TrEMBL record:
Residues 162-192 are annotated as: Disordered. It comes from Yinghuangia aomiensis. InterPro entries: Crypto/Photolyase_FAD-like_sf, PhrB-like, Rossmann-like_a/b/a_fold, UV-DNA_repair_photolyase. This is Cryptochrome/photolyase family protein. Residues 163-180 have a biased composition (Basic and acidic residues). Pfam families: DPRP. Coiled coil: none annotated. The lineage of its organism: Bacteria, Bacillati, Actinomycetota, Actinomycetes, Kitasatosporales.
Length: 498
C-alpha cells in the first residue's frame, strides 16, 4: 500500500495530491490534521480562523473515504493518531517553522513545493548566474515571463513593454463613492460554516483560544469550486477595469476592482498558473486591456513569486532584521484593530476594514498601515506578526518579506530600493479619505496637522544619515533643510506613537 500523503491547511487544491513530477503516489491515502494549538499560540483574526477551518473541512469532505481527518491538540498528536509511526509524504511546507517540524520527523518525506511557478532550485540558479546585486523584482519578473512564455510575443513582451505600472496609478475618479464595476464573487455559507462558527464560539467560551476582529458572512472562497467561480467572475467582469485604479482607494469601496484571489491562492485552492493564464487569454481574446492584464500578472508571477523565493533565500534570520533600530511597541488600538479609537480618517477607515473583513488591498496595507508603523518606529517583528495574524491571506512566507523588507525597510534595502512612506499629500491624491478628516494633509504642525505629514518629516530626520546615502531618497532628505519649522515638527512628531 502506498504511503499516506499529509496535507497542510494551505495545500487544499487538487495539485497537492496529483501524482507525477514529485507528487505522491496516485493511490496514496490522505491525512489532514486540524491542530487547535495553532490558534492557541497566537491571536488570529476570527474571520481567518473561520476561513481556514471551513476550507479544510470542505476539502476533507471532497476527499471522502480517501482522507483521515483528525482534530487534535497538536500536529504531532494528530499525525500519531492518524498513521502512528508509518511513513508519510508531504509537499514542501510554506514556513520555516513547519519545515523544521517535518524535518524533525523521521517518518516524513518532503516532496517538492507546489502552488508556485518557479522551483526553488531554479531561483537559486538564477540568483547565482546574476550575482546578488542584480536580481531586483523587475529582473525576476521579466525572467519568469520569458521562461514561461507568459504575455510574450516571440522574444518581446506583449505590447512592447514589460511593465505598465505607470498606467496603473490613477487617482480615484472624483465625486464617486464606488467604481462602476460588477461586484466580486461572494460565496454562500452553508452547514460547514455554521459548524466551524459553533466550534470557534465554544473554544472562546472555554477560554481555550482568543480572536480579534469580526467574523461576518464569509467573503472568500473555501473550496475549489468557489475559487474557480471567483476567478471566472474576476476575469470576465472585473479584470478589464483592474489596472487603471489599481493603486487608488475609495472609503466606501474597499474592494475596487481587485480580484480577492489572494486568499484562495494562499490556501492552495487555486494554482497561480491557471490565474495568469486565464488573464492572458482574456487579453488575447480582446476582453481586457493590456495594462490591466499585465498589472494582474505582475502581482502573481512577479511579486507573489518573488516574495516566496526571497523568504527561503534570505533564511530564518531575515525576520529579525531591524536596520532602523525600531523598537516601539504596537499601541493597544492597533493590536486590537480598534478603529473606533482612531481619529485620523484614513487609519480609522482602513483599520475598520481589517477589523470587519481581515482584508484590504495592497495600497492601504503599504501606504497607510505600514507607512504609519514605519513613521512611528514600531518594532518590525511585531508589525510583521500583526499582519500575519490579522489578514485572511497572511502567512509567514507572505508577510516576512512583505513587511520586514518592503513595508518596514527593516533590512536596509536588501529587498527594495527605498522606504515606502509618504506625507499626507500622497494619501490625499490617491484616495477620498482626507476630505472628511479632522486633519489636513498640507499641515505638519498644530491641532489639525496630518499625522502622516508630520510623521514623514520626523522619520526622514531620525534616519537622515542612512537615507541621504540612498539615491532614491536624496531629494526627499534634502527637503528637511527647507523646513524652517523642523524643530517644532520634531517636538510634535519626533517620538514613537506621537
Amino acid at each position: 500500500m502506498a504511503n499516506a500523503h499529509w496535507l497542510f491547511g494551505d495545500q487544499l487544491g487538487p495539485h497537492f495530491v496529483a501524482p507525477g513530477d514529485g507528487g505522491p503516489h496516485r493511490d496514496a491515502p490522505v491525512v489532514m490534521v486540524e491542530a487547535r494549538s495553532v490558534f492557541r499560540r497566537r491571536t488570529f483574526h476570527r474571520a481567518k480562523a473561520h476561513l481556514i477551518l471551513s476550507a479544510m473541512r470542505r476539502r476533507a469532505a471532497e476527499l471522502g473515504d480517501r482522507v483521515t481527518y483528525v482534530r487534535a491538540d497538536t500536529y504531532r498528536d494528530g499525525l500519531d493518531k492518524a498513521v502512528g509511526k508509518a511513513q508519510v509524504t508531504v509537499h514542501h511546507p510554506t514556513s520555516h517553522a513547519a519545515m523544521r517540524f517535518v524535518r524533525s520527523l523521521d517518518q516524513v518525506t518532503v516532496l517538492p513545493a507546489r502552488g508556485f511557478l518557479v522551483a526553488r532550485d531554479a531561483f537559486g540558479q538564477w540568483v547565482g548566474d546574476r550575482g546578488e546585486r542584480h536580481w531586483r523584482q523587475e529582473d525576476f519578473y521579466r525572467w519568469v515571463r520569458r521562461e514561461r512564455g507568459l504575455l510574450m510575443d516571440g522574444a518581446e513582451p506583449a505590447g512592447g513593454r514589460w511593465n505598465f505600472d505607470h498606467d496603473n496609478r490613477a487617482s480615484p475618479p472624483r465625486g464617486v463613492r464606488e467604481l462602476d464595476v460588477p461586484p466580486p464573487y461572494h460565496p454562500r455559507e452553508d452547514d460547514v460554516d455554521d459548524e466551524v462558527r459553533h466550534d470557534l464560539d465554544a473554544w472562546e467560551r472555554a477560554g481555550d483560544v482568543a480572536f480579534v476582529g469580526r467574523d461576518g458572512p464569509r467573503l472568500f472562497p473555501a473550496s475549489r469550486r468557489e475559487a474557480r467561480a471567483a476567478l471566472k467572475r474576476f476575469v470576465a467582469d472585473r479584470l478589464p477595469n483592474f489596472g487603471t485604479y489599481e493603486d487608488a482607494i475609495l472609503s466606501a469601496d474597499p474592494v475596487m476592482s481587485h480580484s480577492l484571489l489572494s486568499a484562495p491562492l494562499n490556501l492552495g485552492l487555486l494554482d497561480p498558473a491557471e490565474c495568469v493564464e486565464a488573464a492572458e487569454a482574456a487579453w488575447r481574446r480582446g476582453d481586457a486591456p493590456l495594462n490591466s492584464v499585465e498589472g494582474f500578472i505582475r502581482q502573481i508571477a512577479g511579486w507573489r513569486e518573488y516574495v516566496w523565493q526571497l523568504y527561503w533565500h534570505f533564511g530564518e534570520r531575515y525576520r529579525a532584521s531591524n536596520v532602523l533600530g525600531h523598537t516601539a511597541p504596537l499601541p493597544r488600538w492597533f493590536r486590537e484593530a480598534d478603529a473606533d479609537a482612531v481619529e485620523a480618517n484614513c487609519l480609522r477607515s482602513v483599520l475598520g476594514q481589517v477589523r470587519d473583513t481581515g482584508w484590504t488591498h495592497h495600497i492601504p496595507r503599504l501606504m497607510i498601515l505600514g507607512s504609519h508603523a514605519l513613521q512611528r518606529g514600531w518594532d518590525p517583528a511585531a508589525v510583521t506578526d500583526w499582519f500575519h495574524r490579522l489578514f485572511v491571506d497572511g502567512y509567514d512566507w507572505v508577510m516576512v518579506p512583505n513587511v520586514v523588507g518592503m513595508s518596514q525597510y527593516a533590512d536596509g534595502g536588501r529587498m527594495t530600493t527605498k522606504p515606502y512612506t509618504s506625507g499626507g499629500a500622497y494619501v490625499h491624491r490617491m484616495s477620498d479619505l482626507c476630505g472628511p478628516c479632522a486633519f489636513r494633509p498640507t499641515e505638519r504642525l498644530g491641532p489639525h496637522a496630518c499625522p502622516f505629514t508630520g510623521g514623514y518629516w520626523a522619520f526622514l530626520h531620525r534616519h537622515r544619515e542612512l537615507l541621504e546615502r540612498n539615491p532614491r531618497m536624496t531629494r526627499a532628505v534634502q527637503g528637511l533643510d527647507r523646513l524652517t519649522d523642523l524643530d517644532q515638527v520634531l517636538d510634535q512628531w519626533g517620538s514613537p506613537n506621537a
